[in-house]
Amino acid sequence: MKFGKSTKLGAAMLMSLGLILTGCGTADKPASQPAPKGNDQQASAPAPAPAPAPAPVKLPKVNIMVGGLEKIIYLPAKLTESLGYFKEEGLEVELTSQASGVNAEQALIAGEVQGVVGFYDHTIDMQAKGKFLQEVVQLATNPGAKLMVTNKAKDQYKTLADLKGKNIGITSSGASSHFLVNYLVTKGGNSTKDFVPLAVGAGGTLVAAMEQGKVDIAWATQPTTALLEQRGIATTFVDMESQEGSKQTLGGTYPAPSLYMDADYVKKNPEVVQRLANAFVKTLRYMSTHKAEEIAEKLPKEYYAGDKDLYVKSLQASLAMFTTDGKMPAGGPEKVLEVLNISTPQLKDAKIDLSKTFTNEFVDKVKK
């Protein structure tokens, strides 16, 4: 029957459509996966990012004024820079030169610089005036200087008493050279009013003053003293350069060239001061283990003043004055105060606390 065939055909079509729909439904379902175990979950998790390294501490720049960079008594300042020890300590240090230590001291008090390489005696003198400065590295144990007299006038000078009434060359008024010339005049039985101090600076200006007859006698340090002798201009009258001569003249160890700073700065910036101490002590050790020729090679050629051999000779004569550890020698501050009390009468009434004028705290911590 026609009706029967149509019924069977429709049933077959419905069955085929059902299979197609069933197949589509199965394809839409995601394939089942086994649940990951706990350890597998941890292994597949990304590792945590490492914590960022702390940024290096930026230390403040340090300006150090030197009472004559080319003077051998202050050689450790430039040598420390040349050897790269400031940079090794992570410091940015700028060195500037000033003809006289007293000018450097004034720049420190004014806050223009953070440190001075000059004579320790300034810390005592300024405490009497209400300013607290503190030595943090002691570079040498004597002044490293001589009182030089012209060969033309040397017969006029037999003893310290002969300084009376004379024009005497010093670096500048109020400088350490002035303090010590005052002492020598007083030791000769005269007073500080019995001579005329003339500021002639150092180096070339001092040599010119002696050649031109402005002064017959003057304070000088190496390499100027060697130059005066080589040219036949002057000879030694008082020796405060050799260890023996200095002790004989001053009556004991007289700590002079040093690194000193404002006491408040030292207190507020101990890390900077420690690194400065590290750098300077490394230099002092270098100087104690190397020859003068080797040390000279590390310095600017202009320091030789055109005569390297003379410079090396001057340096060799001076090396014994430098410390090897940067420490203040025992009894040194007392000797300096004693000399200043004689040469600077106004200090006698001041109550000086020597313990506040220096510290070995930082040099004691420098690694051996």
UniProtKB/TrEMBL annotation:
**Main location (coarse class):** periplasm
Answer yes or no on keyword Signal: yes
> In the UniProt record, does the keyword Signal occur?
yes
Sequence segments annotated as region (Disordered): 28-54
Q: What range does the record give for the signal peptide? A: 1-27
Annotated compartments = Periplasm
| Pfam families assigned | NMT1
Entry keywords, A to Z = Signal
Q: What is the protein's given name?
A: ABC transporter substrate-binding protein
